[in-house]
Structure formats: structure tokens, C-alpha cells
Amino acid sequence: MPTTIPHSTTATKLQGVLEALLQTPLPMRVRAWDGSTAGPADGPTLVIKHRRALRRLMWQPNELGLARAYVAGELDVEGDLYDALVRLAALVWRAPDVKDVPIRAVAGDLVRLGVLGTQPKPPPEEMVVSGARHSKRRDRQAISHHYDVGNDFYRLVLGPSMVYSCAYWTSDRPGYDLADAQRDKLDLICRKLGLQPGQRLLDVGCGWGSLAIHAAREYGVQVVGITLSTEQAEFARKQVAEAGLAGQVEIRIEDYRDLEDGPYDAISSVGMAEHVGTEPYAEYAAILYAQLKPGGRLLNHQISRLHLPAKQPHQARSFIDAYVFPDGELAPVGTTVTLLEQAGFEVRDVHALREHYGKTLREWVANLESEWATAVRLTSPGRARVWRLYMAASALAFEQSRIGVNQVLAVKDHRDGAADMPATRSDYSV
Predict the structure, then answer these.
(1) What is the pLDDT of residues 157-205, one digit of tens each?
(2) Can you give the residue ranges of every domain in the chain?
(3) How far, in Å, CA of 232 to CA of 228, rounded?
(4) How crowded is residue 177: how many other Cβ atoms within 10 Å of its Cβ?
(5) 414 near 295, Cβ under 8 Å?
(6) Closest of 214, 193, 211, 192 to residue 203, by C-alpha
(7) Which of 146, 193, 184 has its CA nearest to residue 163?
(8) N or C: which end of the chain has fewer CB within 10 A?
(9) Domain at 10-112: CATH architecture
């Protein structure tokens, strides 16, 4: 049994231990498991519900340690989550190496708090993939972990459009909502691709089929959508059938490396490249180039790394890699453009949509929070917390220009150099 600490001093000692482990002043109030508090009274409160949260931070004094405690329900935030994440962000990014943490200096308090012990097991929502990185088998594991968590859960978060990429907000008029902005994004993609009736569109990483259905219904094209998620494919096929588009849209469970039925008139890759990875991207771009007709266009919609380090100091895994997108990688947009050009594409337009994603994510967080009990029932308390943390933190990352998102429009030129592109952007800009 741990030694009992006087009620009035638990939070004070807890604050001191946290500041020692993280080697920086704690920027928010702390409430301990016994109800005692310490720290500044303004703003949100970091609630330590269980001693195990401190033990996690003792072993992982960084983003991953905080995330594990939050996902496990041992740590929570009372008040504005966005404000709390802003306050904690600087603390997390300069997190120390565990070997540099002065455990001995706070050993007495750690003993009295009942914190010392072996490293706790990660919450069950943490994913460990196996096999060679970005092999077909491992990619399928990673995709399944993220997308096969229930279509009803995704509908709750994403709304009726079931579009899992940033919306395109073209209006601030009353009544204009997320579904409208997602429709405008789908239409923007179709216009950039110059779709015409009878053409063939390949949608790589087709999600729940929203773009495929929009392109077939509004532009009269034949669409092949591919995904590695069985739940996405099942949902998309049902939506296609209900829309009466079974003769125009085919949804396959297929790896992009197995494509062999081109050429296509146009290719869309929306939110797919982040899963491909930076190193395999040259092969990905070459495959898309080979599947496209001369004069055909590629629309690549991809999150980019701006000022965010590829990996945080002293940390083998990030929260995103462990819980959200295993093996996901973000590259600067310049790297993407270079790799597309090296594959043979001519890049014609780059459209930054960073602010649009921040607003979209806040809408998704609001959807989740408004239906929290249902979200927990559909998945698990830990999974719901993963999504709340991931989306709120991502919204701030876009808003603070730490990551971006871009639509890159590229074309496969004819041998004589003709690109079959309009002279101006007027055909596809708003």
C-alpha cells in the first residue's frame, strides 16, 4: 500500500513530479485523484485520475506517455480541450530523453505517490503492425486498424457525406454546412480533372465511395474505386447500388500495386499518399503515370509536413503512429511535386487548403462530442478518446501552420508536349 499523503499536498507534490519528469513548468492547473488542486486557476485543468498516468510519464516523458494516459482514461482535461493542447504543445515538443529525467530528485515523492513500478502496458487501442514496412501485408494491417472501426462510427463523425478529407468552404452564408462544403470539394476535384461523360476515372483510396458516386452522377464518367478496407468497400458498394450507379461505379478491394487495367482518362488520389509513405512514393507515382492516358490528369490531395519534425526528439513513436495512422508519413509539398515530376508528370497547379482542414476537423470534433455516448457504444471509450485527441490536435496543427494540405494537379503530356489543359484556371477555379 502506498503511503497516504495529506489531502492538501497531493496535487502540489504531483505538480512538482510532473514538472520534474517533463523538465518544464506545467502551464495549467492540476487536480489529483483525491480532489486536491495546484497551479494557475485560469484556463483548463489537467485531471490525473490514477497514479498509473504518472508511471506512464516516468517511462515515457513525452507525447506518447501523455497520450497513453489519456486514452486509458487515467488522465483527462476539464475545460477547453483546444486551449489545453495549445498550452501542452510546447511542453510536449521539448520533452526530455527518459535517461535525462532526474528520477532521483523526486524519488521520495514518487514513492509517496505510489508511482514507482514497472512500465504499464499500452492501452489496447495502440497498434503494432508487423512485417516489412509498406509491404502489402503490413499496409493492409495499417489500413484496417484505422478504417475498419465501424461505418456507423465514421458516419457519426464525418456526417452524411462520409467524406474523410478536408472540405472546401466556399461560403459563410447561414445554413451552409459541412455537407455543402464537402460537396463543393468533390465538385472542385471533378472540375480540376476535366471530367467528361464516358471517361474512365480511377479513384485510388476511394474511401466510402463519395467521390466515385459524385463523379458518376454529376459528370457521367465510369469509375473504378480501390481501397484496402473491407468495411469501406462494403459501405461504398451499398451506396453505389442505392444511387442506381452499379453500371457506372465499381468498388474493389485492391492494392494500388496490383493495378493493371489502365489506361484511365483521369486519376484521383485523395488522402491516399499519406499511407503510401515517402520512400515508396516514387513507385506510387510511376504506377499512376503508367495507368493514365496521354493528356490525362492526376489530382493528388495530400497532407504535407511544414514545420513539424518527422519525429519528435527522443521518441520512437508518435501518438499518430501508435494510435491513428500506423506507418503514415508526411512529406513537404516540394518533395511530392519533385517525385511526381520524376515519374513523368507535368505539375500544372498547386492549391493550398490548410485553413479549410482546420475548420473541417473542428466540425468533426463537434460531431463526436455531441454524440459521445453513442461513439463510445459503437467503439470503445479508448477509441473515442483517440479520435477526439487526434482530431482536435490536428485542427490546431493546421491552424498554426505546422502541417498543410495541398491539391496538386498534374498531367501526363502527349509525346509532342501537348497537355490538353485549358489556358487559364477558369474551368476549375471558384
Answers:
(1) 999 999 999 999 999 999 999 999 999 999 999 999 999 999 999 999 9
(2) 10-112, 136-427
(3) 8
(4) 14
(5) yes
(6) 211
(7) 184
(8) N
(9) 2-Layer Sandwich (3.30)
What is the Rg, in whole angstroms, of the alpha carbon atoms belonging to the chain?
A: 24
The H or E element that residue 300 is part of is: strand 292-305
- For domain 136-427, the CATH class is alpha beta
Q: Is 232 within 8 Å of 147 (Cβ atoms)?
A: yes
CA–CA dist 19, 400 (Å, integer): 25
Determine how many CB atoms are found less than 10 A away from the CB of residue 152. Answer: 13
> For residue range 3-55, what is the model confidence (pLDDT) as tens digits?
444 444 789 888 888 887 777 788 889 999 999 999 888 889 999 999 999 89
Question: Helices (H) and strands (E) in the chain — how many of each?
Answer: 17, 11
Q: Residues for the chain: how many in total?
A: 430
Picking from 351, 363, 359, 370, the residue whose alpha carbon sits closest to that of residue 396 is: 359
Q: Do residues 212 and 223 make contact, with C-beta atoms less than 8 angstroms apart?
A: yes
Residue pointed to by grid coordinates 519533385: 338
Same fold yes or no, 10-112 and 136-427:
no
Residue where the block lists cell 491552424: 399
Pairing mode of beta strands 29-31, 37-38: antiparallel
Given a contact cutoff of 8 angstroms between Cβ atoms, the answer to whether 282 and 290 are in contact is no
Sign of the CA dihedral running 322, 325, 327, 333: negative
Give residue for cell 493542447: 85
Q: What is the dihedral of CA 256, 257, 262, 268, to 10 degrees?
A: 30
Which amino acid does the sequence have at 274? E
**264-270 sheet: strands from edge to edge:** 249-253, 222-227, 200-204, 264-270, 292-305, 403-411, 346-352
